[in-house]
Structures are given as structure tokens and as C-alpha cells.
Design brief:
With 214 residues, the chain is α+β, with helices and mostly antiparallel strands. It is built from 6 helices and 9 strands. The chain is elongated, with a radius of gyration of 31 Å.
Length: 214
């Protein structure tokens, strides 16, 4: 008869039991028998409320996606002997991408005899990195990739505190005057009703990815 290594609802080790006995224990406790380590010998199963587990896992995944920074990588292609006007245009694209918070993959394309002069591409990448150093930094140093040379520039981290300071109302502005407290009407006592304040409790985060219920 198949056996499982059973774990109790509070994480306690029950031991190796037959699958039928594990199912009976789950029914008696009004819980689900969930396989958490199917590749183990014997497989590991746990007694838990599977519906509650799935709900808490979904909450945790939602919070993780909310705080996850989505990074976009843009690509700019250059030639080793690029015209100064074209270089200025390409540099403008790089600056715009960095201001948007995106990474930039800069590719130098060598053709024909240019492949024997990788130093031209290296110097061009160094020049570009220096021209945009106020907006970004070299995240991946120049390296040869077949006929191309690649460098990655990442944006500097933004400072949310400075942004918050800029958005704060200045003294004497209309926003500050509107925020002044309104005096109570005449005849209102000191023990009059005050404003009700409600605080929202943060959602409890659950466990990791959902295992399989038996």
C-alpha cells in the first residue's frame, strides 16, 4: 500500500503512514491532504486547509507583483565610424530611455575590415557612457559578441524623497490655506462629536507556490 511522510497542520512530524490512514486523519480533522514534496521517497504530504492556503498565496503573489519593478531594455545600434550628427541623435535616444527608467543595450556593429579594429568600438562606447553619465551608469562593460560589441547602461535610481519635497505645498499657498482646520460653530461644546477615523489592516501574506491537493 502506498505510504507518505505525513506532516501535521502545525508543522509537526506525524511520521510515515499509509495513504488511506492519512486520508482518514484529514477527514477527521476536516482538513485537506496536500502533497508538498512529490519527488521525495516516500512523498511528503501535509494536513492543511487548502482553500485558505490558495487564498493567502494569491494575496502574496499580488503584493509581490505590486512591488516588483518592471525593467525594460531598449536597444541602440551604432557603427564604429558613425557620423557626428547621427551620434547626437542616437545619444538623444539613450538619454530619453534613461530618463524613462529603462536600461539601454548599446550595440556596435562591425563590418568588413572594421572587425580588425575593435578599439574603435570600445572608444565609442566609452565616449557614450561619459556623455550620459549624469543619467545612467555602465551596468555591463563592453564585450565582444561575434561581429558586434555590446554594452548595457542602466539608469540611476530615482530619489522619491526629492519628488515628494517638490510636490509639497509651499507656505502661504492656496493648498496650505485650504488645509487649515475649520473652527467649530458657535455653541458647540468641548465634548462634541469628533471625526471618525478608520484604519485599514494590511492583508496577511500567505505561503509560497501552491502544492497539489490529494
Amino acid at each position: 500500500m502506498p505510504e507518505v511522510r505525513l506532516v501535521g497542520p502545525n508543522g509537526e512530524q506525524v511520521g510515515i503512514v499509509a495513504i488511506n490512514d492519512a486520508l482518514r486523519l484529514a477527514q477527521e480533522a476536516d482538513l485537506d491532504l496536500v502533497e508538498v514534496a512529490p519527488t521525495a521517497r516516500p512523498p511528503v504530504a501535509k494536513l492543511m486547509d487548502y482553500g485558505k492556503f490558495k487564498y493567502e498565496s494569491a494575496l502574496k503573489a499580488r503584493e509581490s507583483r505590486k512591488h516588483q519593478a518592471q525593467t525594460v531594455i531598449k536597444e541602440i545600434k551604432l557603427r564604429p565610424k558613425i557620423d557626428p550628427h547621427d551620434y547626437g541623435t542616437k545619444k538623444g535616444h539613450v538619454e530619453r530611455f534613461l530618463r524613462q527608467g529603462d536600461k539601454v543595450k548599446v550595440t556596435i556593429m562591425f563590418r568588413g575590415r572594421e572587425q580588425s579594429r575593435p578599439d574603435l568600438g570600445y572608444r565609442l562606447l566609452q565616449k557614450l557612457a561619459g556623455d550620459v553619465e549624469e543619467l545612467g551608469f555602465v551596468e555591463s562593460q563592453p564585450k565582444q559578441d561575434g561581429r558586434n560589441m555590446i554594452m548595457v547602461i542602466g539608469p540611476h535610481k530615482r530619489k522619491p524623497d526629492a519628488k515628494a519635497d517638490r510636490s509639497a505645498p509651499r507656505p502661504g499657498t492656496r493648498a496650505q490655506r485650504a488645509a487649515q482646520p475649520v473652527p467649530p460653530p458657535r455653541g458647540a461644546g468641548e465634548n462634541g462629536p469628533g471625526p471618525a477615523v478608520a484604519a485599514a489592516e494590511p492583508a496577511e501574506q500567505g505561503a509560497a507556490d501552491a502544492p497539489t491537493a490529494i
